[in-house]
Design a protein that fits this description.
Layout lengths: L4 H14 L4 E2 L4 E2 L5 H19 L1 H25 L4 E2 L2 H8 L1 H7 L2 H8 L5 H35 L2 E5 L22 E2 L10 E2 L5 E2 L6 E5 L4 E7 L3 E2 L2 E2 L8 E3 H8 L6 E6 L14 E3 L3 E6 L7 H14 L5 E5 L32 H10 L1 H5 L7 H27 L17 E5 L8 H7 L2 H40 L15
Parallel strand pairs: 3-6, 5-11, 7-10, 15-16, 16-17
Antiparallel strand pairs: 1-2, 4-8, 8-9, 9-13, 12-14, 13-15
Helix pairs in contact: 1-2, 2-5, 3-7, 4-5, 6-7, 8-9, 10-12
């Protein structure tokens, strides 16, 4: 049974009390070298026991991801003849030693507890908030990196090229770069490298592919672009073989957030893929992929987002959602629409026929109409008018009540069953072969492009035919009209040939 963190914390406090030379205050920490190793043994017991007590399930999930990522990274490195594929330091530590990675974020909260800034309840709250943010971010990135390498392995890559984006948060000495899109520049050439790293750029001159490989599986060049970043410069020239979309319209649709991966393909020349976006334009992707690691990711909000991504980016070969968990089959079954209650017809009733509650409501809301009579009316006429008034006002009150209380249809929540045919859900877990439908879709690219070219050519021919018809038909109509109408001379029109 795992040790309770409170027990380990009690042992740590006792150790500190036995060593008065240890000073832990907000402005000062003194731990002498001869007792430092022993102190941190107690200190680390508190951190590890807290993780094991509160986050045992997350720790198991992290170990599972770490094993799967290590295996797929080793396999891809062998294929591409690489020593390793680099990730950020936090993710590397998360993959190598998950428990130590979790413990690292509890360093400051535990010292805050020891120096009196927070009590034990405050420590629990601060620790939970810190751990959950840390785990959520790295688990999301880790599964995305696993999926990228798994797909890369399926494509049977041969050699690779990389883009070298200029990170403007690190290197931006251009004095003209004071306004987005102001600088017009040349796109860097693709580079051959003997190492490969995932980049973590947030703002750059252009969006360049992270990696371009030639796939033996589909006999095409494929570019992988994970996590689009902000682009500031305008490219001097654009590749005409790519279809370009307006970047402002894309960002108006979903901001700078994008799916986890865009893939673009080229048949013969990888240089066609060296630029994928500048400040003004973004290349239409061939496939969009989103990797989802959470257990219950299929919320209405997520489905709305993925629909927006797909409708805006319009990937030629579809959108794929790669899920770590198996999605329950019932999530794909459309819900029966809720019945809408039809308003009941209003039947005029007298005061005597109404239930007591409705009767008092009608009288109270129309008190003036009932009690006010003309001074010239007789008693019988006044009573008759009051009865007629009661009927009319009662019917109005009932009609208003029926209108306001009638059931209104609720806005339906989006479900996986609402996804169109070009958005696919793959319950992959950590099985690389489950991504096979993506490689099959990529293999249809040549056929798709040939059909698109044929349709475009047919559309042009049809347009030219319509233009020719439009230029000849009005002239024949005018001639026919002139031949049928009687001609009038100048005299009949009252015109004179002399001034």
């Amino acid at each position: 049974m795992a040790e309770k963190w409170s027990e380990a914390y009690t042992d740590l406090k006792e150790y500190i009390a036995e060593h008065p030379e240890i000073v832990i205050r907000r402005s000062m920490v003194i731990i002498k070298d001869d007792i430092r190793p022993e102190f941190y043994q107690y200190f680390d017991r508190v951190r590890s026991s807290f993780i094991e007590e509160y986050y045992a399930a997350e720790l198991d999930v992290a170990h599972e991801l770490a094993g799967a990522f290590s295996e797929i990274r080793k396999s891809v490195c062998q294929v591409l003849h690489l020593d390793t594929i680099g990730v950020c330091a936090d993710l590397e530590g998360f993959m190598e030693q998950p428990l130590m990675s979790f413990m690292s974020v509890l360093y400051s909260p535990l010292f805050h507890l020891l120096d009196g800034r927070i009590d034990e309840n405050g420590f629990i709250l601060e620790a939970q908030k810190t751990v959950e943010m840390f785990f959520g971010s790295l688990f999301c990135e880790g599964y995305e990196r696993w999926g990228t390498l798994a797909l890369l392995q399926l494509l049977e890559p041969q050699n690779f090229l990389v883009g070298q984006p200029r990170d403007l948060e690190v290197d931006n000495d251009n004095p003209s770069d004071f306004y987005p899109g102001n600088v017009i520049g040349d796109v860097p050439e693709l580079q051959q490298e003997n190492h490969l790293e995932f980049n973590y750029i947030k703002k750059a001159t252009f969006l360049l592919p992270w990696l371009i490989v030639h796939s033996n599986r589909i006999n095409l060049f494929a570019s992988f672009t994970p996590r689009r970043y902000i682009t500031r410069w305008t490219a001097r020239s654009m590749n005409e073989n790519l279809e370009w979309m307006d970047m402002r319209q894309v960002e108006d649709s979903f901001g700078t957030n994008t799916p986890d991966m865009m893939i673009h393909l080229a048949k013969e020349n990888p240089d066609e893929l060296k630029l994928l976006a500048d400040y003004k334009n973004i290349a239409r992707p061939d496939i969009v992929i989103d990797f989802v690691e959470n257990d219950d990711w299929y919320s209405s909000q997520y489905i709305e987002n993925i629909l927006r991504y797909s409708n805006t980016l319009k990937p030629r070969l579809g959108t794929f959602i790669v899920s770590r968990v198996i999605v329950p089959p019932e999530e794909f079954v459309p819900l029966e629409p809720e019945p809408v209650e039809e308003p009941q017809p209003i039947v005029a009733q007298t005061i005597e026929e109404l239930p007591l509650q409705d009767c008092s409501m009608a009288i109270d809301e129309n008190k003036t109409d009932i009690t006010t009579t003309s001074s010239t009316q007789t008693g019988s006429e006044s009573a008759m008018d009051e009865t007629e008034g009661d009927k009319n006002t009662t019917s109005s009150a009932l009609a208003e009540k029926a209108t306001t209380s009638s059931a209104k249809p609720k806005h339906p929540c989006l479900r996986l069953s609402d996804l169109p045919d070009d958005i696919h859900v793959l319950s992959a877990g950590y099985d690389a072969n489950a991504l096979e439908p993506i490689t099959q879709a990529l293999g249809k690219w040549v056929e798709f492009m040939e059909q698109a070219a044929a349709q475009e050519e047919a559309s042009k021919e049809l347009q030219e035919t319509e233009q020719v018809s439009a230029s000849t038909e009005p002239q024949s109509e005018i001639q026919t009209s002139d031949s049928n109408e009687p001609q009038q001379n100048d005299a009949e029109l009252g015109l004179s040939s002399t001034p």
